[in-house]
Amino acid sequence: MTTVSAAVPDALFALGLAAVVDGVVTGDENRVLLAACLVGALAAGSWLLGVVSDRANRRFADRAAVVIESHVARLHSSVATLELHERPDHQDRLAVLRNHAGALSFLYQQLFATVGAFVRLILTLILLLSVHPVLGLLGLLAVPDVLVTHRRAAVKKEAEEATAQDERLARHLFDLGTTPLAGKEVRVAGIGTWLRGRHRDAWMRRYVPLARARWISALCQSSTQALFGAALVGAVAWTAFAGLSEAASVTLVLTAGSRLSQYIAQTVNHTQFYRSIWLDVSRRLAWLEDYAAAGTATADSPAPRRLAEGIRLDGVGFRYPGTTTPVLDDVRAFLPAGTVVALVGENGAGKSTLVKLLCGFYTPTSGTISVDGVDLNRIPADQWRRRVAGAFQDFLRIEYPVRQSVGVGDLPRADDPAVVRAAVERGGLDDVVAGLAHGMDTQLGASWKDGVDLSYGQWQKVALARGFMRESPLLLVLDEPTSALDAEVEHALFERFTQVARSREDAAEGRITILVSHRFSTVRMADLILVVDGARVTECGSHEDLMDRRGRYAELYEIQAASYRAGYTTARGGREGRR
Ligand SMILES: Nc1ncnc2c1ncn2[C@@H]1O[C@H](COP(=O)(O)OP(=O)(O)OP(=O)(O)O)[C@@H](O)[C@H]1O
Q1: Is the whole model's pTM more than 0.90, yes or no?
Q2: I need a labelling partner for 161 at 20 to 30 A (CA). Which of 45, 68, 281, 512 fits?
Q3: Residues near ligand 1 with C-beta < 6 Å?
């Protein structure tokens, strides 16, 4: 309310000045003194109310910014599928929403600022009309400016959206050129200059149309404001020479008139901001809210407490959003409850995609995945995800003390030392922790105080341990989480996982463990092996079944076994030769 109140003394300032001039012209000292006090009081009141409203608004906006950003982040993470992150049109919408989400926090403050601007404008118009009704025309001559400002803002927004992809590209290239992770490869490949060039090109593709739009806007606005300026000069001259020659009236027209353009600009800016925030950012926020809610609309069946039968893939087909090539096509398989299932196949065969579908990160484009006979789409995504655990090849490096970095795998139990310790052991991280100065309390990440950096394989073990935090997942996914570890270490770890998976407690829950690995010595431990080839599951059975079948699996297994044998013989030959 202080914002609105501040508008009144501000607008009446012209009246105070006119009274001072009137007192001077009539030689009435008391009147001059009174009017000067009024001007002082108006100026002080306007300043004081402005400061108070500014403080209050900032406080409110800071709090609102935290709430709104948390809301956007929550909506992001509550979207069940990954489509949101991978469709370019969705990404562009999200980029604009992320960039402007902070502006939403000014919505409330802006509402009062807009009302305040209207109050100033109306009071100023009343003051002008009190001199002569024809001065109301000044208000009309401000209309072109209003129209131009509205139109040009829309054009600028369109240009921003049309080039949002280039902005993302420029940021991506900047990150590539400046983040430590990419640093080695950028230097070895010598692509620093190339990256800089591409980065500049992307910025120019964004900047040129935006700059053009801004220049045209500036030209149009200068013309309309020049028109208004000319009208103001005309109004002052007319007041001075057309029978309204009292000095007080001229002062009023001069002061109120010159402020009129400023108040009109403020009113237009405030309404424009309000309009763009309301129509644009809040519409995007509503879109994100609907998008997040749509995923749960068809979910009407709770996640099972335990798996009794298993998971069935029935004619499952999948294309990534925005692409036309099927990555999976008519996949049919049954994963029985309580088993360890391995997925094998060449690079790009579709193993990780199948894992993502099983986790519910995407919905199949055709066919169904059913869990104990219930379509996975009918199980609320958050419930299903609470029963899924695992580790992925593209893992997170959470730079916290080891205890938390592992513990966040299951937040409700993150503070239970015994649970975290058990997960550390299952993930094979115990030997890494033993070598750290502060053990489980060691800060991870070299950029933090007393922080240590880990090797890629050690980070992978942290992610793996985090994946083992969850108490009773129905689906445990291990999608090449040990690719950076030695074959022997991976073998030992998986041997331990499969033993646990076959333990009485895990078998009672019917947990299915999905294992993706390119190492056949690991894969052969699984109860069931699915061979993914040419977007389909072409073979399915135990290691022995598949070897007997002498198909693709047996062929790949033999190739790997032969290369291991050759490597072993060469290594042994080399050692014996050196002796
Ligand atoms: N987000 C994505 N958008 C579009 N296509 C994708 C996406 N992710 C994967 N693909 C494509 O889907 C196909 C299968 O990829 P996927 O990651 O499932 O293979 P994979 O068998 O796990 O391979 P790898 O053994 O190399 O990990 C590949 O051709 C890949 O290019």
Answers
A1: no
A2: 68
A3: 86, 320, 323, 327, 345, 347-353
